[in-house]
């Protein structure tokens, strides 16, 4: 293709035939060089994150930087925070139609378009970070995820993980299942469905409205991410709080979305660079959250008087039962969700059996006196 | 530089006198082309793994393939199994002196040269895979690891993780600490030191001699990796065995070693490609082991009559106490080890506090009835 273009341009230069013959090689080179310069692939990355949002937003920024630098500038990705080019929840559509060539967000935001997508962020009482990564990359997960997104002209990849998210902030203690009765809690996705099953009222609010809603008492509780993000978000200032460990997002995967045509138009090496940069971002975010959550948690407890409490075992058991019912219902409502749920269950049974004698046995043995 | 040359030549295009110059340019281009061809960077990767060794050896192969493909052939890495170019335990020296430009193995193999290196593979009752990755990439670990290797002209990177390794294969049940008395067990590194403290006899054998030693009774027990590798290695055939969960290598990091001059001679984009390919390999191996260990474990139990047993809690407690003593001794013997141990302890206290309310709380809550 380059060659054809070259000859086309040479014809326009208007040189004599002899010159062409004599210098054809040289010209071809020149033009190839000029073309190479013109060939910088300018990509837009739209994200669901506020500007400079710690961990999630900065993870997207770092991914763009990696792609730009690893490609030596052949790809130039410019990142847009939520609302800068399109609103947060239009990222999926914007990349689908090619307004942007890539996006960064989380798959469960798109459950209205593809209910099965939510299995690829987090499932209540489902996979930990290590488990969901293994399912996606070695358990058939990615193939299913690609199948879900193909009709939308999109290619998904795992692009970050928060680890176990906290169960949330509550303005009262949760001592029994009855304490969930009528509880108005900001909790999106599958976790919200589970809360509804145990008598609560899930409320879906964008991040920017959480603080005020807590302060005015419009909601009694909220989940957000984990100590690192929750501290940065200042939630502890909104009321006196009890802070509980998590059950509903035990290893939330962030996603990079690529416009299928844009991705497939890349030469093979750039495709592999994009894939490796994304995989690197996926690992990097978990490493960051794992390192930074504890200091933030200590600050919340020691400087901001947040009370850390565990849910009682019978509450967790009831939430677990309600979670299984919720997943069964989601699966029954949609053939693709059923297919993904079957894979999730099969892989889940195996990986839990393995982690019973490895991760879990070890992490408990380590705490023995 | 490219830009200057290009415009310089374009200015001459079409002029008779300059045609010669332009044609000279052609010559120069050809030469540049030849040079470019000659510029393929041929690297050798020596490894500590037998040819086609599942997970660890194939992980090294995949890393080479990624570098080759992501660089579009600008780097060409050829992989050598243990013994093909240098013996397994000469990988460190071979890369240090530049016989090979990179290596793949595990840092604790080099404890004779740099005792502090062993903290970067696995520590008894130390970090899980998720924790060691976070320490290395976000807790100051990598900087220390680089400091240890700098005098050897080497740059280390994390390049794979097995997850929690099994505690090993025993020809009798371990019901109390007394059962370790006089037990001859193949167990290298810090785990071996700990075994010695509780009365056992650690024996260091290369992989190839384990099977026969078990069969003849020269050793009573061995650890290797985990079900996926142990099944492939056929250990279950050597005797009637009890198989125990692990404590001594709770998330073993494999390493890629780069010759410092070779790595630093790469242009920036290739350096970043090598780093991302290595980070990808690091994640990929853990995903693979996490996905494949369970089936192998089930095969061992159900088809090969291996008995899976937990160590009693008091045995684990004693091993943990002996582990801490061992680490204190290693640290006291060498200033660099002390520096690394201090970082390990500080990060460890924080990450365990966080995992107490996240990973551990969750993984236990998930198993509630």
TrEMBL record, chains A, B:
SUPFAM superfamilies in the cross-refs: Periplasmic binding protein-like II (SSF53850)
Name assigned to this protein: C4-dicarboxylate ABC transporter
InterPro entries: DctP_fam, SBP_TakP-like, TRAP_DctP_sf
Signal sequence, start to end: 1-24
One Pfam family recorded for the sequence: DctP
Keywords noted in UniProt: Signal
């Amino acid at each position: 293709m380059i060659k054809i273009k070259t000859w086309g341009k040479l014809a326009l230069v208007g040189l004599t035939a002899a010159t062409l013959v004599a210098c054809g090689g040289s010209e071809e080179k020149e033009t190839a060089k000029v073309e190479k310069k013109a060939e910088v692939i300018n990509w837009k990355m739209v994200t669901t994150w506020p500007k400079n949002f710690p961990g999630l937003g900065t993870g997207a920024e770092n991914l763009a930087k990696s792609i730009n630098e690893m490609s030596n500038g052949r790809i130039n990705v410019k990142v847009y925070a939520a609302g800068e080019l399109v609103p947060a929840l239009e990222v999926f559509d914007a990349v689908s139609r090619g307004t942007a060539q890539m996006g960064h967000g989380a798959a469960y935001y798109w459950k209205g378009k593809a209910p099965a997508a939510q299995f690829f962020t987090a499932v209540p009482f489902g996979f930990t970070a290590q488990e969901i990564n293994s399912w996606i990359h070695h358990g058939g997960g990615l193939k299913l995820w690609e199948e879900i997104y193909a009709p939308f002209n999109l290619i998904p990849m795992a692009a970050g993980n928060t680890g176990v998210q906290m169960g949330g902030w509550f303005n009262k203690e949760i001592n029994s299942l009855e304490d969930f009765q009528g509880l108005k809690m900001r909790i999106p996705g599958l976790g919200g469905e589970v809360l509804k099953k145990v008598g609560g009222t899930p409320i879906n609010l964008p991040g920017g409205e959480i603080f005020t809603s807590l302060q005015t008492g419009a909601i009694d509780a909220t989940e957000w991410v984990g100590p690192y993000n929750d501290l940065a978000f200042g939630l502890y200032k909104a009321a006196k709080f009890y802070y509980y460990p998590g059950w509903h997002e035990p290893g939330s995967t962030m996603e990079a979305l690529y416009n299928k045509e844009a991705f497939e138009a890349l030469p093979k090496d750039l495709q592999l660079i994009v894939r490796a940069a994304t995989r690197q971002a996926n690992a990097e975010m978990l490493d960051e959250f794992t390192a930074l959550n504890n200091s933030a948690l200590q600050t919340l407890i020691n400087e901001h008087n947040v009370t850390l409490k565990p849910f009682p075992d019978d509450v967790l058991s009831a939430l677990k039962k309600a979670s299984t019912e919720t997943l069964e219902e989601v699966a029954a409502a949609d053939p693709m969700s059923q297919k993904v749920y079957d894979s999730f269950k099969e892989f889940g049974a195996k990986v839990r059996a393995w982690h019973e004698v490895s991760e879990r046995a070890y992490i408990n043995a380590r705490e023995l006196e």
